[in-house]
Write a structure and sequence with these properties.
The protein is mainly α. It has 2 domains: 10-80, Arc Repressor Mutant, subunit A (Orthogonal Bundle), CATH 1.10.10.10; 85-224, Up-down Bundle (Four Helix Bundle (Hemerythrin (Met), subunit A)). The protein contains 10 helices and 3 strands; from the N terminus they run H-E-H-H-E-E-H-H-H-H-H-H-H. Strand 2 (70-73) and strand 3 form a beta hairpin. Helix 4 runs antiparallel to helix 10 and helix 5 (112-131) packs antiparallel against helix 6. It is elongated. Residues 16-83 form the HTH gntR-type domain.
Length: 228
């Protein structure tokens, strides 16, 4: 008889969550050029900077190593891998490809109640933009797109997109007031296209969001001299 599966302790769950948070922070720093290619991420220094113990930093670096974002060099530590323009373009291409497929399905299957929910979430985003609170803006934007991407019922595909969008640096976009205003306007257009069941328009608006995001991130990385 097989032994019953053990339920993870609260401490283990919290440690895993903390590791994910550290990985997300380091991933964003790499994607925005704050952590430069060829630099080393030191366990003790990073733990002190982020206010955590060494364990979640070590686990986060193991995750990033699996993603090809850092490489472990014996006796030296984890080195940030180069990030090329093609890498950025490939990431956005993958995200946009999945997102457009989900958008087309959502446009055909979404209910009036789900559209009303998107309108409510977009109003929450608009309020966050008016308050100029990047944390609230990033969270409101996330909630809007998570709801939209799941509206067509293709949950597994939405899960893949969720993991692909880990490479988007939300705070970079959310800190830009102009971007926030344009996001609200784009969402308003999207909601209108959903109400009229205009599949082509819904897909085009979705594609445009990723085209804009790519242009903004490339411009930022050029500005900070990542490839100079």
């Amino acid at each position: 008889m097989n032994a019953p599966a053990r339920t993870p302790s609260r401490g283990a769950v919290r440690r895993e969550q903390l590791s994910d948070e550290v990985a997300a922070r380091l991933r964003t720093e790499i994607m925005t050029g704050e952590l430069r290619p060829e630099t080393f991420i030191r366990l003790d220094e990073t733990a002190a900077r982020l206010g955590v113990s060494i364990t979640p930093v070590r686990e986060a670096l193991r995750t990033l190593r699996g993603e090809g974002m850092v490489e472990l060099e014996p006796h030296r530590g984890h080195r940030v891998m180069p990030l090329s323009r093609s890498d950025i373009e490939d990431i956005f291409w993958l995200q946009a490809t999945i997102a457009q497929e989900l958008a087309a399905t959502a446009a055909r299957r979404i209910t009036d109640e789900q559209i009303d929910e998107l309108a409510r979430l977009n109003e929450a985003l608009a309020q966050a933009v008016r308050r100029r609170d990047p944390e609230l803006v990033a969270q409101a934007e996330f909630e809007f797109h998570r709801t939209f991407n799941r509206a067509g019922g293709r949950i597994k595909l939405a899960w893949f997109l969720l993991h692909a969008t880990r490479y988007l640096p939300p705070q970079l976009f959310a800190s830009d007031g102009d971007w926030g205003v344009l996001a609200v306007e784009s969402h308003t257009e999207l909601i209108g296209a959903l109400r009229s069941r205009d599949v082509e328009r819904v897909v085009a608006l979705t594609r445009g969001q990723f085209t804009d995001g790519l242009a903004r991130l490339i411009a930022w990385l050029e500005q900070v001299g990542l490839w100079s």
